[in-house]
Design goal:
By secondary structure, the chain is of the alpha+beta class. It contains ten helices and 38 strands. The protein has a nine-stranded mixed beta sheet with strand order 30-31-33-32-34-35-36-37-38, sandwiched between helices. Strands 3-4-5-6 form a four-stranded antiparallel beta sheet, with no helix packed on it. It has a four-stranded antiparallel beta sheet with strand order 7-8-9-10, with no helix packed on it. The radius of gyration is 27 Å and the shape is globular. The two termini are 31 Å apart.
């Protein structure tokens, strides 16, 4: 989702694993790197030859673009860039595309033939900028959106040829589709704005503007057909892949439901009120252009449906319990139900992502870890003012043979892994950080606090106590619930979050300092006002929607929800990880927060990465993972070690007689090395670059 602080749907997953040993997995012959980082995603498929695919995978700790030929089972690495290449696709003529960006996220779209060859610019004459959408037609026509500061430019042309600027739009918008018949362009703005979706003609002339602003229809002819009521946000999901009509797929929010909808030049918007869902959905056209695949996120898990608007039928499709990170209908198979072939990416907390094809198509293997993740994974529901709060709890595995009760058999120390967004949620899905923490003996709580997706519009809009503070209240309530159930220790609870999740970590440590024993905040919002003034235009717009205005218009709201306001109250040791080129959570506001911690004498450490907000280098992910794990182990297990040290000291003070009857000379007893893992307890700071 545009404007989100943090990845949508999932975190970049740190998988501590060996390189693939055999097979055709990308990078299988590169065994020098021990660790790898991957962001699991389905391959893009060539519309005219479904055996030809493009996917992203790990390449020596970087995300790079590869081709995959399902007929031969062969993969070929296309890109090899220092900072990695996270965006790739394939067009109907089997040309491979990727976005060649610099350290600031600005660059150009480039392409080459599927079998290899020289790289070429997608369109010539396009100035560098951020990627805001790409569409390539069957005839080689190209449309692309390019961001430059606070404006977005849409360009058109023939693949590899000169670009023609079609339109320039103020604000952050994305190109969401091109119709195959008339060449209509769909661009998407903020889903809740008056210009949620704009349809342009081929020359850039506005054809239709569709609003996503909430409004009531009192007896008047509504903007859309369907049941009268409050229509809200609107999302554009692409034109039907048919040359005989121009039909744009939409999702419409209506009250407490999400509805499938379509727009066409002749009829306008038609809302299919028979196809309604109580939690968030996304949708894709089937290759026939008449059927729609719907993926629903519901309470941390996923469900697939097939909808046929012509006969008003909705069918649930069988998939394993867990989460579907992506799903796409493809041509080239025959399942007997008109679905051709469905590719989906399945996972749950105990199993890393796996690709599936309902028609048995050979999909590229994922560079992943084998087997099942250790631990006891369960759901916890905690009562709250706007309904129960859902937590995905992972506990360390119990010993296979129960041992006699011991003094150290108390519940495990716990880490609250706080998701980003805020328009996101934690899923019953594999997470490399969860894996690492549980395998190290920590309990992990992933809380889908108010404001999270996957629980319906009311839950997503519930910010009653204020931005951030509402979410902190939910973290506090879940902490108390888990302690009352005897599942975690009251004196060893830490927080770990990235981006918006890092913001909540800082806010919780300051607003409720007595409850937490450690915190890790990675690339956080630390000063709400300073972040607003220096972040991207899209995130300024997001802040204005959350707070109800700018800091000049509602200063008290920003001040009340800003972590820097509470910096002098932080008591738990804190590790702050920030990035020097972070445009979303800029480094200046983090430095200001660190200065406030120093002035207050708060014990903290800082770690700086020479990256942007969304890094793709495996080494950076592993460095942060290792630093945070050592920090949390030291702080949350400090009381255990102190207690054991006291018991050991007491035993050592008791004279012992060796079997020979002689006392040992203390000077002759060998001693081991003294390991100092970090700053001593008490006030102090440490900085690592």
């Amino acid at each position: 989702m545009t404007g989100s602080r943090g990845p949508v749907g999932r975190r970049p997953e740190e998988a501590v694993a060996h390189k693939p040993r055999t097979g055709n997995s990308a990078g299988a012959d590169r065994t020098s790197a021990r660790y790898q980082v991957y962001r699991a995603a389905l391959p893009d498929v060539c519309a005219t030859d479904p055996a030809l695919m493009v996917f992203t995978a790990d390449a020596d700790g970087r995300c790079e673009v590869f081709t995959w030929d399902a007929a031969t089972g062969r993969a070929r690495q296309v890109t090899d860039r220092q900072g990695g290449t996270p965006h790739g696709t394939i067009d109907p003529d089997a040309y491979v595309w990727w976005f060649d960006e610099d350290v600031h996220g600005e660059g150009h779209w480039r392409f080459q033939p599927f079998q290899g060859g020289p790289d070429r610019l997608g369109l010539t004459g396009v100035p560098p900028g951020t990627s805001r959408g790409l569409a390539v037609g069957d005839d080689g026509s190209v449309a692309m959106g390019v961001g430059n500061g606070s404006t977005t430019t849409i360009h058109r042309g023939v693949r590899g040829g000169p670009a023609c600027e079609v339109t320039r739009v103020d604000g952050h918008v994305t190109l969401s589709g091109v119709s195959p018949r008339a060449g209509l362009l769909a661009i998407s703005g903020p889903a809740g704005s008056d210009r949620a979706v704009t349809v342009l003609t081929a020359d850039g002339t506005p054809h239709t503007v569709l609003s996503g602003a909430s409004r009531e229809h009192h007896g008047r002819r509504p903007e859309v057909s369907g049941a009268p009521g409050a229509y809200g946000r609107l999302w554009s999901l692409g034109f039907a892949p048919r040359a005989d009509r121009d039909e744009l797929l939409l999702v419409r929010e209506a009250g407490d439901r999400y509805l499938l909808a379509c727009w066409s030049p002749g009829t306008g918007v038609v809302v299919h009120d028979w196809c309604a869902f109580d939690t968030e959905i996304t949708a894709r056209w089937y290759p026939d252009g008449r059927t729609v695949l719907i993926r629903q996120d519901s309470h941390g898990r996923s469900v697939l449906h097939r909808a046929r608007p012509a006969d008003r039928t909705l069918t649930r499709l069988p998939t394993p319990p867990g989460s579907l990170l992506d799903a796409a209908p493809r041509a080239g198979g025959d399942t007997g139900d008109g679905a051709e072939d469905i590719h989906y990416l399945w996972t749950d907390t105990a199993h890393p992502p796996r690709m599936h094809s309902t028609a048995g198509t050979a999909l590229p293997p994922l560079s992943t870890i084998p087997g099942q993740v250790p631990g006891d994974h369960r759901d916890i529901w905690t009562p709250g003012p706007d309904g129960p709060v859902h937590t995905l709890l992972s506990l360390p595995a119990l010993p296979a043979i129960p041992a006699p009760a011991k003094e150290n058999d108390a519940p495990a120390p716990a880490v609250f892994l706080v998701h980003g967004g805020p328009a996101d949620h934690d899923r019953d899905a594999y997470d490399g950080v969860v894996h690492s923490l549980v395998a190290s003996g920590f309990a992990v709580a992933r809380v889908n606090y108010r404001g999270s997706t996957g629980y319906g519009p009311r839950w997503r809009r519930a910010f009653g106590a204020g931005v951030g503070l509402t979410q902190v209240d939910d973290l506090v309530a879940v902490r108390a619930d888990l302690i009352a159930r005897g599942l975690v220790r009251a004196d060893a609870v830490g927080l770990w979050g990235t981006s918006w999740g890092g913001y909540l970590v800082l806010l919780a440590l300051g607003a409720r300092p007595e409850l937490w024993q450690a915190g890790v905040a990675v690339k956080p919002v630390a000063d709400s006002v300073a972040a607003y003034r220096t972040t991207t235009p899209a995130l300024r717009a997001l802040d204005e929607r959350l707070f109800g205005g700018s800091p000049d218009e509602v200063p008290e709201r920003y001040a009340r929800s800003s972590p820097v306001r509470y910096a002098d109250r932080v008591r738990a040791p804190l590790l702050v990880v920030a990035a020097t080129r972070d445009a979303k959570c800029p480094p200046g506001q983090v430095r200001g927060y660190l200065a406030a911690l120093r002035a207050a004498g708060a014990r903290h450490e800082s770690m700086w990465l020479d990256t942007g907000h969304d890094g793709y280098e495996g080494g950076d992910h592993v460095a942060v993972l290792r630093r945070a794990m050592v920090f949390l182990d030291r702080e949350l297990r400090r009381r255990d070690r102190d207690s054991k040290r006291d018991r050991t000291s007491a035993r050592d003070r008791t004279p012992k007689t060796p079997p020979s009857g002689r006392r040992e000379d203390p000077a002759r007893v060998p001693t081991g090395p003294v390991v100092r893992a970090g700053p001593a307890a008490g006030t102090g700071t440490a900085e690592h670059v």
